[in-house]
Design a protein that fits this description.
Length: about 425
């Protein structure tokens, strides 16, 4: 979002999502203005003071037209299509255990049935408290299949952090070995977060501060990662799973196998010589591995994709902290080219596209746009703003990074 020197107005779409838009410019399609206006910080304060019921009343009163179209297909549907086509393919490997796609589907169906049996339904948050491995993947798919929202919890985190996550997410059930059980996270107040159709997970990154901040992932993001991979880079094989539940890269490692029937190599934890815990592949050498790369700008994320070991040159992927990967071919000059279904917009302080050769702030639109921050509507509105060139009521991510627009799809830093 641009500087507080420009005045803004709070806008609303048909899904009762609130946003911030410059005064003097008509809002994008699917958004209507409200009476609340001021600097960005003031607009955030207004939004934080509006309970979900109040946001729905604003949307109803202003009738902003069609809301953002939710994807009609979930990541579970994509996985089932892959499983039907390759049911006997071994997809998960872990220390003497293996599962085929067909077996993974059957076990996740059983978990979904158990969750439904204790009353878990659409929009209910379910904590998955398993070490990353076969049981974790089965539980995650089972939650999504039951229509719930998966809340991965790192079992190695402190008890205080785990308890804080369960409370902040408002979970209604826990999967922690054995059968699922109901969980009472306390009464929901008028400001309790209301999930949107298409919400899939709430991930709590460990690098955003001492207090848990839940990042809402949508099915469209997971599908985008599964089918929007860089052409010619990932064409099957095995993936080394090496990240933890509080890192969105874990989702990248897992869902690519859902869309391509590639084998996800689940690791054993072994202790390194330096005392840290390091992954060790359970079965042979993996074809694909991801590792972090140094970043140049706050809020961005660079990831190295190694194919066939670390001897060759990696492909550098570029993304945001909340979306992991949105472009390939990143370098010191720029983030590279967006993946299929991703748009780069370089906008000035009035959220107008800058001409070729000019600089502006980079905004990312398309499937990487998530659901924002759980229970933090003001922060969400500052980061996710109305998309002036997208479908009615849609949003885009303001990265805060200054870039130079070179072509329609190519930008460079500074």
């Amino acid at each position: 979002m641009c500087s507080d020197e420009t005045r803004f107005r709070v806008v609303v779409n048909a899904s009762a999502q609130l946003g911030i838009w410059p005064i003097g410019r008509p809002p994008p399609r699917g958004w209507q203005v409200t009476a609340m206006a001021g600097a960005v910080r003031r607009c955030q304060d207004f939004i934080d003071q509006i309970p979900p019921a109040g946001a729905r009343e604003l949307a109803h009163a202003r009738q902003p037209g069609p809301g953002p179209a939710a994807s009609s297909r979930s990541i579970v549907e994509l996985f089932d299509r892959t499983a039907r086509a390759a049911a006997t393919v071994l997809v998960l490997h872990e220390a003497g255990r293996q599962l085929t796609l067909g077996e993974l589907r059957s076990r996740s169906v059983a978990v979904a049935d158990e969750l439904s049996g204790i009353g878990v339904g659409g929009g209910d948050r379910v904590a998955v408290c398993h070490p990353v491995g076969i049981d974790f993947v089965v539980a995650m798919l089972g939650v999504l299949r039951a229509g719930g929202i998966c809340v991965p919890v790192d079992v190695e985190a402190s008890i205080e952090r785990r308890d804080a996550i369960l409370s902040d997410a408002g979970v209604s059930a826990i999967l922690a070995g054995g059968r699922p059980r109901r969980f009472d996270s306390g009464p929901a107040g008028e400001f309790a977060w209301q999930p949107q159709p298409g919400d899939a997970l709430v991930v709590y990154p460990s690098d955003v501060g001492p207090d848990p901040v839940g990042v809402v992932w949508r099915h469209s993001q997971l599908r985008g990662l599964a089918v929007g991979e860089p052409a010619g880079v990932f064409d099957g094989g095995s993936v080394l799973v090496r990240h933890r539940p509080d890192d969105g890269l874990l989702l990248l490692e897992l869902v690519w196998s859902f869309g391509t029937a590639a084998s996800a190599v689940i690791f054993d934890d072994t202790t390194s010589a330096t005392g840290g815990r390091r992954p060790r592949a359970s079965t042979g050498a993996p074809d694909i591995a991801f590792s972090a790369a140094p970043i140049d700008h706050p809020g961005e994320r660079r990831t190295l994709l190694w194919r066939g070991g670390t001897a060759g040159a990696p492909v550098q992927l570029w993304g945001l902290g909340d979306s992991t990967v949105v472009a390939t071919g990143a370098s010191a000059d720029g983030p590279g080219r967006p993946l299929p279904g991703v748009r780069f917009l370089v906008l000035d302080h009035d959220l107008t596209m800058v001409p070729t050769g000019a600089t502006g702030r980079l905004h990312v639109a398309g499937w990487p746009v998530g659901g924002g921050y759980l229970g933090r509507p003001g922060l969400t509105a500052q980061r996710l703003i109305p998309d002036p060139s997208g479908p009615p009521g849609s949003r885009m991510v303001d990265t805060g990074i200054v870039v130079r627009r070179r072509t329609r799809d190519l930008v460079t830093f500074g």
